[in-house]
Amino acid sequence: MAASAPTTRLPLLSPSGVRTAHRTVTDRLREAILSGELPGGTRLVQSELAASLAVSVTPVREALRDLVGEGLIEFDPYRGATVHEPTLEELEEIYELRSLLTARTVAEGVQKITDEDLDLAETLHKAMKAQNDPAVWLDLNRQFHHVLDAASRRPLYQEMLGRLADLSALYVGVSISGSKSRRKNANSDHAEMIAAYRERDGDRAVELALRHLADTVEVARARLMSAPDA
To answer: Would the pTM count as exceeding 0.85?
Structure first.
């Protein structure tokens, strides 16, 4: 990490959509972090963010708290809020845990998933294929995997995988940054996963899911290792 944290790039954080201020700020900051618009280590000043987004400090404070929970922002009583900086060690740990849980939930989910679940996964897959905005693609990706993770009907597994998916989002963003081929490959993986679920082929679905996670780790690892401060 550089000795001095970069300043918040406020001019880029314009408000969007007609939603609650809390939701708008949360979504906008998440988008800026996952897209790299706000890089790791950036210090986030509540009053400056509020002015940039034309809202009061209250929804900014609530949004920062939500994003701390998602692992995208860190809070220190002395430094305040800063954008979480991805590391190789964290990448490996998150995906090791995710792979262990995924193997079990996919094997069970293939047998329990409904046609409605698969239709929803298909709809999300088609939306991802048509999407050019990386930030929107990342959100659709989270929704897609949530549908498959929930199919096992194991609430505790689903909760843990949801938490790991939140923590993974930053690394998925790293893996697709500047690489249209990674998104294209991920979309192809998703199509194959849907087909395996529809055929109730548990072994194939597990194989595809684990390969999909491993590919993300491989690309994200390479990008982190090639970063200037790595």
So the answer is: no
